[in-house]
Amino acid sequence: MREALMIAGPPALEGLYEAPDAIIRGSAVVSHPHPLYGGTMVQPVVHHVAKACRRAGLATIRFNFRGVGTSHGDFSGTEEWEDIRAAADVAVQRADGGRPLVLAGYSFGARMSALAALKGVHADALILVAFPMMWEHLIPDAFDRLGEFAGPVLSICGRHDDIAPPAEVESFFHARGLQPETVVIGGTDHFFYDRHEALEAAVEGFLSRRLPLTEVSGERKA
Fold first, then answer.
1. What is the 3-state secondary structure (H, E, C) of the chain?
2. For residue range 159-186, what is the model confidence (pLDDT) as tens digits?
3. Which CATH architecture describes the domain 2-210?
4. pLDDT for the residue 219
5. CA 72 to chain centre
């Protein structure tokens, strides 16, 4: 099943709900890269992360951050984690309160997904793709409590990424007490061109190993 939706705000957000082919065993909210640099919910990396989540049995919600597409509001740079909270609320409602819930994000979306978890959005796991080390609006101190996140975390980087250099990302997380499962994909940079299959495999493998999935709905994809 694939359904366009508007996520209640404020601000109201343009979204897309997609169910897996088989039994729904959880939910994932997948967040897109920087709104001011062309990031949208249909960006290829976001599409492939969501696809891998569905293969692992998770229903997915992608959405456009405030000010993108037909989403209402204006870009903030610091408050977009609240958009993730709104999408997560819909995901949990669709699953009749069932768990688990995964927050996944790419680049700016990874940063906001981590911030959402720190701000009280209950997530059972985090998937952080190309977590950026360039700071424009938020400051690094915003993530000082990241090590308190109790669930499994996957960090994915491209070997030649100069926005999210693998060694810097790993050091950043470790300095805050977070020990994620780390996958570095060779032969690519921040955009994962021609490496989408490897990206999907990393996400699906992580979910199959680290996330206990139990049936939460009998709904099947039409």
1. CEEEEEECCCCCEEEEEECCCCCECEEEEEECCCHHHCCCCCCHHHHHHHHHHHHCCEEEEEECCCCCCCCCCCCCCCCCHHHHHHHHHHHHHHCCCCCCEEEEEECHHHHHHHHHHHCCCCCCEEEEECCCCCCCCCCHHHHCCHHHCCCCEEEEEECCCCCCCHHHHHHHHHHCCCCCEEEEECCCCCCCCCCHHHHHHHHHHHHHHHCCCCCCECCCCC
2. 999 999 999 999 999 999 999 999 999 9
3. 3-Layer(aba) Sandwich (3.40)
4. 41
5. 21
Q: Which amino acid is at 152?
A: P
**Among residues of the chain, what percentage have pLDDT more than 90?**
86
| Per-residue pLDDT at 216 exceeds 60 | no
Among candidate residues 91, 62, 67, the one with its CA nearest the CA of residue 79: 67
Helical axes 81-94 vs 108-118, angle rounded to 10°: 70
Residues listed for the chain: 222
What pLDDT, in 10s, does the model give residues 28-68?
999 999 999 999 999 999 999 999 999 999 999 999 999 99
Residue 18 has which token pair? 């997609």
- What number of other Cβ atoms are within 10 A of residue 119's Cβ? 13
How far from chain centre, in Å, is Cα 220? 23
Domain assignments of the chain as residue spans, ordered by start: 2-210
